[in-house]
Design a protein that fits this description.
The complex is a heterodimer of chains A (127) and B (645). With 127 residues, chain A is an alpha/beta fold. Chain A has helices spanning 11-23, 34-44, 60-70, 88-97, 109-119; strands at 3-7, 27-31, 48-52, 79-83, 101-104. In chain A, α2 packs parallel to α3 (60-70). In chain B, 53% of the residues lie in helices and 16% in strands. In chain B, α4 (228-302) runs antiparallel to α5. Chain B is elongated, with a radius of gyration of 64 Å. The chains are: A alpha/beta (127), B alpha/beta (645). Chains A and B meet through α1, α2, α3, α4 and β5 of A and α4, α5, β14 and α12 of B. β5 (101-104) of chain A pairs antiparallel with β14 (518-520) of chain B, so a sheet runs across the interface.
């Protein structure tokens, strides 16, 4: 079962994302804060990280960098930006920060699942 | 200018000299003529006097001639005569052969003279008689009985007058010489005067003009003249002064206006930024709740697995779908407003790629089908299966097409809305044609204006921003949306897009375009290093930010020890820069934590201390204040370099 770490400061959005992913058979762990999320990521080594760009405790660009570095650089699990900052510029910024994928809010369940499935092709779902 | 000057000077010299010489010539000729007249008169007078004297003398002398034996008597009388008559230099008497019988100057007596035969009885004009030296004489042939053609004696009377011929030549030469010298002297002074009076002021004017031309407006022409040149110089000075003050005024005005404009521009930019920021934030804030609206309605409709495999009962489906559509509509409006603010700020840029038009057209048609509802309306696709690649921003073209199709569907009660595409020259022309009411000619000009809507149907919704944004997006593509409309027949909205060049196509192949809302990026980015700066002093943090930015190192900052440790333990940066110079109560405690924590203790640290008197821990580099980029940068490089190695 693939393990997904979600770092998201909005409870409702987090719930929505979690339900989509759990509905699709993924195991999801959620953290509100970027620093807590980063510590958890180092401990748990998730298969994929969903990261809100705009967190109150740390800049998204620093957090993605530290996650990547802490989790082995190129060998690190894919990290997806999930953000309401959804413009072409935001997207290019996300790419330059090192994110592997981008999901703009609002998103439909299928859009998120498409990305996750693309990034975790070999995971066996516990459906 | 210089050439003209020189030529004026030359001209003055030439004209002055020529006119003076001509004048001198005329004067000299006149003078010589007068002189000649005077001399001729003198000659005549001298001649007459001589004749008179000679006649008198001869008459006086004649009596003695007959009795030449009494030389002593003759001598006395003639000597007396010579003394009495100032015009007579001497009197001599010779015999026919030229032997001097008598001379008032006794030394000549007994000498022989010649040339007397040249004289005759009528001749009174002076001739030279050899023997008496260069003296002009009058000689009369004389016989014992009177004047004779064959003289027995010559009575010679020498005039005391100057040798007139010599005098004449000498005086003419001297006069000419004096005139020439006077002329040249006068000419010299006249030229100097003319130079000073005319050429120098002109030279000054020329110099001043050149200086002004070079931008020096402080120059003034010095003049004391009251004539036209002085007038000119004064006018020139006045003009220069006016010019200078005019330029000053102008410069001051420009400066003042520039400052005003800069202030206004800054204010406008600030306002525009504030508006953009506000709209961007608002858009962000609105998207977050919309995520719930669109997300959950979608999941309820399509993802029973999220609801324990319970399908949404059919009785709710329509309403839920309506909520979902409304949510999407709201999203379009939010995007429109955001786009418009960006277009206005000039910040909307295209992300062009080589686009395969066919799937894009298919997808917008599919997306628009839902808008028809219950209307007896057909949405037609009229384009070939194979279209060449175009160079465009997919998202923006989709936006334009969705807007045109939704407008067409919105304003057409029945009939059809047709999307066409065809290749024309190096472009693809895309058109949306409807069979709606058509647009009145009076409205054609304003239809692209913001907030403008056709008020034919009060049911029609929208912000009125769509066409304005679509037009601007088309313009960003170097195109323009045109309208062809006839009342009762319908309207055609059309624009063109350029075909992609081979170069653009190959560029796109290596950089796959972005999808609408979600995408997976390709290619890994280089991971930059992270430095954490813990410093209470904002200027210290600012200094490090500029240094680290320049070094392409991502900087994280904390104001106090607790925050610093929190960040360090969460992020595990590549470098920690810890400022100890501003002591806070908890500073040492958190720094100790940092050094003891299993994860953070291996992170390289650089300490900043106020001065060398504080003992520094031996196990890390220390930078002492005052801080400068010059001594910070090498320390950072050394620490990070070591770590990399």
């Amino acid at each position: 079962m693939s393990h997904i770490l979600l770092i998201e400061d909005n409870q409702n959005n987090a719930d929505y994302t979690i339900r989509i992913l759990q509905g699709a058979g993924y195991e999801v762990e959620h953290y509100f804060g970027g620093l807590d999320g980063a510590r958890a990521a180092r401990r748990q080594r998730p298969d994929l990280i969903l990261l809100d760009f705009n967190l109150p405790d740390i800049d998204g660009n620093v957090l993605i960098l530290t996650l990547k570095k802490n989790l082995g650089g190129k060998a690190a699990p894919p990290i997806v930006a999930v953000t309401a900052r959804n413009t072409a510029v935001d997207r290019q910024l996300a790419k330059s920060f090192g994110f592997d994928a981008f999901v703009g809010k609002p998103f439909e369940p299928e859009e998120l699942l498409q990305i996750v499935k693309t990034l975790l092709p070999n995971s066996r779902l516990s459906l | 200018m210089k050439h003209l000057n020189r030529s004026i000077r030359t001209q003055i010299i030439l004209v002055t000299l020529i006119s003076l010489l001509v004048l001198a010539g005329i004067l000299e000729i006149t003078h010589q003529y007068q002189q000649q007249a005077v001399l001729t008169n003198t000659e005549r007078r001298v001649g007459l006097t001589l004749i008179r004297s000679v006649n008198n003398t001869i008459n006086s002398v004649r009596a003695f001639i007959s009795s030449l034996s009494d030389i002593a008597e003759l001598d006395t009388r003639l000597t007396e005569l010579v003394q009495l008559n100032t015009d007579i230099d001497f009197i001599a008497v010779t015999d026919a052969t030229g032997l001097v019988i008598f001379h008032s100057d006794h030394q000549y007596q007994g000498q022989q003279v010649s040339g007397l035969s040249a004289f005759n009885a009528q001749e009174t004009i002076a001739k030279e008689v050899t023997g008496f030296g260069k003296v002009f004489l009058t000689a009369l042939p004389f016989a014992s009985e009177g004047l004779a053609d064959t003289p027995q004696y010559w009575i010679i009377v020498a005039s005391a007058a100057e040798p007139i011929q010599n005098q004449r030549v000498n005086s003419a030469f001297a006069s000419a010489l004096v005139t020439l010298i006077l002329t040249l002297t006068a000419g010299f002074f006249l030229i100097i005067f003319l130079q000073a009076y005319f050429v120098r002021p002109l030279e000054q004017l020329t110099k001043a003009t050149n200086a002004i031309e070079a931008g020096d407006l402080t120059i003034r022409v010095q003049t004391r003249q009251n004539n036209e040149i002085g007038q000119l110089a004064r006018s020139f000075n006045q003009m220069t002064q006016q010019l200078a003050s005019l330029i000053n005024t102008l410069e001051e005005r420009v400066k003042a206006r520039t400052v005003e404009l800069e202030i206004a521009r800054d204010q406008a930019e600030q306002a525009s930024r504030a508006k953009s920021d506000f709209l961007s934030n608002m858009s962000h804030e609105l998207r977050t709740p919309l995520n719930m609206v669109i997300g959950y309605t979608s999941s309820m409709l399509t993802m029973p697995e999220m609801y324990n495999q319970v399908e949404l009962p059919a009785v709710f489906r329509n309403d839920i779908e309506l909520i979902r559509q409304s949510g999407k509509h709201l999203l379009v409006l939010i995007n429109d407003i955001l786009d418009l603010s960006k277009v206005e700020a000039g910040k909307l840029t295209l992300n062009c790629t080589a686009v395969d038009l066919k799937p894009l057209l298919d997808s917008v048609v599919a997306a628009s089908l839902g808008l028809i509802g219950a209307k007896p309306l057909q949405l037609r696709s009229d384009y070939p299966d194979k279209l060449p690649l175009i160079w465009a921003d997919t998202m923006r073209v989709r936006q334009i097409l969705l807007n045109l199709l939704s407008n067409g569907i919105k304003y057409t009660a029945s009939g059809s809305v047709t999307l066409t595409a065809e290749v024309r020259a190096e472009q693809v022309r895309i058109a949306v044609t409807d069979t709606g009411a058509g647009i009145p000619e009076s409205a054609l000009n304003t239809i692209f204006d913001r907030f403008e809507q056709l008020q034919t149907d009060t049911d029609i919704q929208g912000t009125g921003l769509g066409l304005d944004i679509s037009q601007r997006l088309a313009q960003l593509h170097g195109s323009h949306i045109t309208i062809d409309s006839q009342i009762g027949q319908g309207s055609t909205f059309a624009f063109t897009l350029p075909l992609a060049t081979a170069e653009q196509i190959s560029k796109t192949a290596s950089d796959p375009g972005m999808s609408d809302n979600a995408e997976v990026f390709s290619g890994a980015e280089e991971l930059r290093q992270i430095a954490l700066v813990v410093a209470a002093d904002p200027s210290t943090r600012q200094l490090f930010r500029s240094i680290l930015d320049a070094a392409q190192i991502v900087m994280l900052e904390a104001v106090d020890g607790q925050n610093g440790f929190e960040l360090a333990s969460g992020v595990l940066p590549d470098l920690i820069i810890w400022d100890t110079s501003i002591e806070t109560t908890d500073h040492q405690q958190w720094f100790d934590q940092l050094r003891n924590n299993a994860e953070t203790r291996t992170i390289p640290r650089i300490l900043i201390q106020a001065g060398a008197e504080v003992t520094a821990p031996a196990d890390q580099p220390v930078i002492y204040k005052p801080l400068t980029a010059a001594h910070i940068t090498p320390v950072i490089q050394a620490v990070l370099g070591n770590r990399k190695a």
